[in-house]
Amino acid sequence: MSAGADAGIFRSGMKDLKMSELSWRILILGSIAAVFLISVYCLAHGITTIFMHLYYFPIILLAYHYRYRGFVFASILSAAYLGLVYYFDVGQADVVTGAWYRFFVFIGIAAIIAYLSERLVADKDDLQESTRKYQNLFENMLEGFAYCRMFYDANGRPVDWIYLNVNPAFERLTGLKNIIGKRVLDAIPDIKELTPELFETYGRVASSGKPETFEIDFKPLNMWLKVSVFSPEKEYFIAVFEDITTRKKAEAELQKSEKRYRDLFELNNAVMLILDPKTGMIIDANEAASRYYGYSREELRELLITRINTADPARIQKDMADAAGSQGAVFQFRHRKKDGEIRDVQIFSAPVMLGDHPLLHSIIQDITDQKIAEDALKQTNKKLNLLSSITRHDIINQLFSLKAYLHLSKDTLDNPPQLSEYLIKEERAVSAIERQIAFTKEYEDLGVREPVWQNVGICVKNAMAALPMRDLHIENACGNLEIFADPLFEKVFYNLIDNALRYGGTKMTTISLSSREQDTGLIMNVEDDGQGISARDKTQLFERGFGHHTGLGLFLSREILAITGITITETGEPGKGARFEIVVPKGSWRFSAGLS
Questions:
Q1: DSSP letter at 281?
Q2: In what order do the strands lie in the sheet with 567-570?
Q3: Exposed, middle or buried: residue 242 (CB in 10 Å: 0-12, 13-18, 19+)?
Q4: What is the 3-state composition of the chain as percent helix, strand, coil, each rounded to the nearest 5?
Q5: SS3 state at 150
Q6: C-alpha distances out from residue 70 to 24, 59, 101, 112, Å
Q7: pLDDT digits (tens, 9 = 90+) for 120-164
Q8: From the DSSP assignment, how many helices (H) and strands (E) are in the chain?
Q9: DSSP 3-state of 104
């Protein structure tokens, strides 16, 4: 880099050293002519001690400038010297011997000078080529280049610098023109106030000689620079810099984007996991995932997805590969929580990049209640279709009987006793049809809406409000128990309490509700202290039409509960009161705080 700073000096020196071909010819021919004339004069007057040394000058000039041709010319000049000695026949043996000696010396010197000149020319050509290449690089490099001298105050603090040389990229990047020879405080007056750290760094490098590389927000020109600075000699420094403003803006936008994504990931109430699709390792999990699965985030980061997903590992691996190789995919699995509970989930997985590592971003949605509701609706639909078919068949049968008795009645108008019997049977048929129509009214809302979580205590209170409770006492020990059931769940307690009021007897004073947990779910008991239900009635208690009233209440209660997999049986002892045992499967009951 320092060679670039001195490039102008080098080019100027080379220019001064170059001589025109004509100047060289005049010098060489002049020296040859002078030496030759002096030789003739000296030999003609018997002088043999000085003139021969003059031959070194033209021989050296010939060998240096013309190199190998010059060697030939120098050899001819040496031979001419020897010929002159013989021509004038000085008659001194030592002069002739010396002439031969010098002849060979002249040729040797010419050979050496020619060789050295060839090497010198080759080195000079290499230097010129290197200089040309450097100059081309200096002129066309994309980075800015500045060669400067630093000035210090009496305390050794950097106070200013002067630009000694800059390249075109410097002007293009900074917009500063004709900067060479100017001091920086003249070119950029506020630079010291806006970027004092730049003065400190340049001053430190120029004094210590230790190079440094750094990035700086160059406020005077409103741009970011990456600078490499070093010192070729004390108090001088060279700065090479590039404009990284675009990169810094991109990094700032990326940081904002990453923060938005991180906030979206960390603070989102949706359960989110980051997975490695190759290994199945959970790379990260948000707080919602920790709350949902019951593991700490640190524990989740050490788990394989197969520890949570209950599906076959081969299928899990295939689904992850499919999601990673596409724009995303949707799956349904069953996930196991830390406490062993298994929930139905729907997973939205899409590929994301962490550096150059492809990962999967998975959003998990619990659809257990939705699955239960879907299954309940399917079950209800089947029941409604079956009951609709049975009810229609029963009504048709009753209508058929009614039409038959009406036809017979027409034929027995003159037989009052027989006519009276037919009329009684016709009334029974009409009553049966009436009950069937009443049943469809009771049954029409079954399964129409999705199951929901319902508080047992609230359902019991609502049922009591709709019935003539007399002085009957209700004891509810279920507390804040909630059941996931059809919206008609309240009707179950209405029918059970109504049944107790109708058939419990006059001695009945209390209806109690209690619950207990077991491995398969929860058992809730609804019992009274009335006269109970006979063993004969127990077998057909929940059949449609059985009973002293419409025969629909307990049948309908069983169907309401069955929608979400809940069963009901009567387990009381005759004479000691009725006890209805309701079995709620796991996942369809819970205790919620704040409710009682």
A1: B
A2: 473-476, 510-518, 521-528, 579-585, 567-570
A3: middle
A4: 55, 20, 25
A5: strand
A6: 12, 8, 20, 11
A7: 666 666 666 666 666 666 677 788 999 999 999 999 999 999 999
A8: 20, 18
A9: helix
Place of tokens 């002096």: 38
Residue 166's DSSP bridge partners are 146
CATH class of 452-591: alpha beta
Domain boundary assignment for the chain: 2-140, 144-248, 268-366, 371-443, 452-591
pLDDT tens-place string over residues 185-209: 999 999 999 999 999 999 999 999 9
| Nearest to 481, CA basis, from 514, 451, 452, 511 | 514
DSSP string, 554-566: HHHHHHHHHTTT-
Which CATH number, 3.30.1360.120, 3.30.70.1130, 3.40.50.150, 3.30.450.20, labels domain 268-366? 3.30.450.20
Query: Cβ–Cβ contacts within 10 Å for residue 32, how many?
Result: 19
Please check whether the two domains, 268-366 and 452-591, share a CATH topology: no
CB 291 within 8 A of CB 380: no
Give the residue among 531, 528, 595, 526 at the shortest CA–CA distance from 561.
526
| Global pTM value | 0.41
Across-strand partners of 514?
525
Tokens linked to 312: 């076959």
Q: Report DSSP state, residue 575.
A: T
Residue type, 5: A
Q: Report angle CA 462, 467, 470 to the nearest 5 degrees.
A: 120
Distance of CA 284 to the CA centre of its chain: 11
